Each structure stands twice: as C-alpha cells, then as structure tokens.
Amino acid sequence: MASTDHHAGHDEHATTTGITHNKMMMWSFLASDCMFFGTLIMMYMVYRPDMADLEIGPNQLLDIPFSSLMTFVLLMSSLAFVLGLSALQRGNHAGMRIWLSTTALMGLLFLGGETFEYLKFYDEGITIGSNIFGTAYFVTTGFHKVHVAIGVIWLLGLVLMSYRGRLGVENEEKVEIAGLYWHFVDIVWIVIFTFVFLVPYR
Amino acid sequence: MTDHVDHSTEHAHHPSDRTYLKVGAALFILTAVEIALYFVEDMFESAWSLYLLAASLIILSSIKFVLVVMYYMHLKWDSRLFTWFFLAGMFVALAIILAMMAIYRYY
Fold first, then answer.
1. Tens digit of pLDDT for each residue in B29-49?
2. pLDDT tens figures, B82-94
C-alpha cells in the first residue's frame, strides 16, 4: 500500500506524452494568443493606407528612434530573463533574482516609455476615438502593453517567491513557463514594431 | 563514453549563457540593421526602394522571431509537439490575416 502511494506520488506529473500539463497549457495559450494579436495587427495593416490622408497620423506622430530604443529594451529584457533561468538551473538563486528583477525593470521601462508616447499622442489630440489611426494604434499596442504589465507582475511574483525560499531548482519549470510568456510578448513586439512602425505603406 | 553522451544530452536541454548572449547580440544587430535600412530608404523615396525596404524588414524580423522562439523559448530542444502547436496557431493567425486583408482591402 505504502509502495503504491509512493508510486502515485512519484508519477504525479506523468502524462502519456511525457510533457507536463502546465507547459502544454502555456503553449496552447500562446498559440491562441497568436491568433488574437494576428487579428489586431491585421486590423492596423488593413486601415494603414487610409491613414496617409489624415492631418495628424502615423507619418507625423510615430517616433522611430524612440520606439527603436524601447524595442531594444524589450529585446534585451528577454536576454536578461534567459540568463536568470540559466542561473537558477545552476542553483544560483541570487543571480536568478537579480536577472529576473532586471527583466521586470526593463519591462517597466518599456511600459513607461510607451506611456510617454501615449501622452504625446494625446497632446496632439489623438485618442482611441479620435480617428482610425488612434483606434488601430491604441487597441493594438494597448493589448500588448496589458500583456507586458501582466508579465511584470508575474516576474515580480517569482522574485518574491524566491526570496521566501519557495522557488528551488526543482521548480525551474515555473520560471521557464513565465519565460515562454515573456518571450512571446517580446516576439509580438518584434512583429508590431515591424508592421506598425517600420514597414512603409502607401 | 557514457559520461560524454550524458553530458551532451544535458547540454542540449540547457543552452549555455554563451549561446544566449550570442542570440542577444544577433537580435541587437538585426534591430540596428532594420532601423538603419528605414532611414537609408528615406533618402531614395522611390517605389522600388519602398518595396525593397518592406521585404527586407519582413525577412529580418522573421529571423528575429525564429531566433527568440528557437533559442529563448527552447523549441530547438523541446518536444516537437510544442512546435506543432505553435505552428498551428501561427497558421490560423496567418490565414485570418490574409482572408481579412482580402475581404477588407481588395473587395
């Protein structure tokens, strides 16, 4: 009996595919999120040619150097995250906390920078309801920012768990799953930055 | 011999910091090239340079996308099932994008 209990406890996470449910759930969510952001970016691209005729539109407002800097911050936050995961895998908890906090800080910097952009747009009279550019831009980047904000909270939660000693090397999958989400947010921005900011439209 | 195999398997599951840094450097360089191209194109303002810029940007950002997914999200080493799941999502997303663009832009 004792042996059966032990066996059941040992196989707690065993699945027919050999893949843990949590990781599978995250990848399924990311697949669905692809469709979600795909439609948002599509909406921007569909209306983008009409925006060229606007008095104040993307041609006047989008600040490429500033957004490039924000893109750089987000890309490097992904690097900081994987270095944190790698530190945890080596059992270096202090290193993991430093890298994960750095990642969260970079996420906050990105959110701050983008909020600064929003305020600049607002000063020019562009709001979510002012014209087609405002609607498409704020809805697309706004949903991305919500994702970044959730990611920052998640990261800080992991750092807090680690401080309380509840995030050991055996829990590395928890960090890895948070990483999958964070990197996904990063690749969505790679696509948004290209199609919303850089690619020229007529 | 066995030790060696075990070691390489372990290594395959956890890429080294060096690999992560290399990918980070590649992402940085690719982004810098994208931005440089954007400003270089401004000097030409012709139809061909516009199309060339759009095509180069799409290719460069696709490389960045694949680098992050393969190395940072570990799909290069993880179960193939995850890759198929993600590709399925991407495929449906792309299908929606193309269908909607066809409906709203060209009809």
1. 999 999 999 888 877 777 788
2. 999 999 999 999 9
Q: Domains in chain A: how many in total?
A: 1
Q: Are residues B72 and B87 in the same domain?
A: no
pLDDT at A41 over 70: yes
Chain A residue with the nearest C-alpha to that of B37: A198
End-to-end CA distance of chain B: 65
Mean pLDDT of A17-28: 88
SS (HEC) of A95-112: HHHHHHHHHHHHHHHHHH
Nearest C-alpha in B relative to A64: B35
Chain A residues 21-60 with CB within 8 Å of chain B: 23-24, 27-28, 30-35, 37-39, 41-43, 45-46, 49
Tell whether A27 is covered by a domain: yes
A97: containing domain:
22-198
Which amino acid makes up residue B76?
K
**In CATH, what number is assigned to the domain containing residue A150?**
1.20.120.80
Q: Domain of B8?
A: 2-76
> Cβ contact (<8 Å) for B31 and A23?
no
Residues B30 and B54 in one domain: yes
Tell me whether residues B96 and A38 touch, CB distance under 8 A. yes
Residues B70 and B86 in one domain: no
Please report the ipTM that was assigned to this predicted complex.
0.86
Number of structural domains found in chain B: 2
> Comparing C-alpha atoms, which of A95, A113, A101, A193 is closest to residue A152?
A101
Q: Does A98 touch chain B (CB under 8 A)?
A: no
Tell me which long-range contacts A144-147 makes (C-beta under 8 A, separation of at least 24): A144/A37, A144/A185, A144/A188, A144/A189, A144/A192, A145/A111, A145/A114, A147/A33, A147/A185, A147/A188
